[in-house]
Amino acid sequence: MTQQHREALWSAALHSAGRRVTRQRLAVLTAVDRLPHATADDAAAAVRAGLPHITVQSVYVILADLTDIGLLRRVETPHSPARYETRVGDNHHHAVCTGCGRIEDVDCAVGHAPCLTPEWSPGASRMTIQIAEVLYQGLCDDCRSAAHSRPPSAPQE
Ligand SMILES: [Zn+2]
Ligand SMILES: [Zn+2]
User: Fold this and answer.
1) Most buried residue, 50, 52, 77, 131, by most Cβ within 10 Å?
2) Is residue 13 within 8 Å of 32, Cβ to Cβ?
3) What ligand has the least distance to the C-alpha of 143?
4) What is the pLDDT of residues 48-104, one digit of tens each?
5) How confident is the model at residue 156 (pLDDT cuts 50, 70, 90)?
6) What pLDDT is attached to residue 82?
7) Which ligand is closest in space to the CA of residue 101?
8) Which of the following CATH numbers is that of domain 3-75: 3.30.559.10, 3.40.50.300, 1.10.10.10, 2.60.40.2310?
């Protein structure tokens, strides 16, 4: 998809959410699209490279608003500030490396939400489940090989 095509889709989505199409909003969408799982600070730095007059605070406000109207998805992972992505609406999940914090997309297990059916504990009041947010945690290949190549500790005698 060309940048022009993407901007046309974003503009249409902004319109239908009752937002004006501004350079600032398009710049935030472009930044997050190029840096999937960007933190707000990553996104602000990228936006400010092209639009130096926009404040970091304005980028934060735009990120929150674009998340509210469903053009961005906000991802919460442990030990990290929230991250943003333009891949929305497909119920995908995330895997995070507990070594270096890198995050990767994992496709939804069954293709639609909720992809897990709860086994209710005895005594729990049941709910109608809409979303199952799954976070896979492990070690990426880089962190795993770094852990393996560490010299074995000398036996204590
Ligand atoms: Zn890692
Ligand atoms: Zn993602």
Assistant:
1) 77
2) no
3) 1
4) 999 999 999 999 999 999 999 999 999 998 888 999 999 998 999 999 999 999 999
5) low
6) 95
7) 1
8) 1.10.10.10
Task: Tell me how far the alpha carbon of residue 150 lies from the centroid of ligand 1, in angstroms.
Answer: 15
Q: 143 among the known binding-site residues?
A: yes
Written as one string, the DSSP assignment of 75-111 is E--TTS--EEES--SS--EEEEETTT--EEEE--SSS
Q: CA of 61: how far to CAs of 43, 56, 83, in Å?
A: 12, 9, 14
Question: Is 100 annotated as ligand-binding?
Answer: yes
Ligand 2 midpoint to CA 37 (Å): 6
What is the CATH topology of the domain spanning 89-149?
A: Dna Ligase; domain 1 (3.30.1490)
Nearest to 58 by CA among 26, 31, 24, 81: 24
Start and end residues for every CATH 1.10.10.10 domain found in the chain: 3-75
User: Nearest bound ligand to CA 104?
Assistant: 2
CA of 90 to the centre of ligand 2 (A): 10
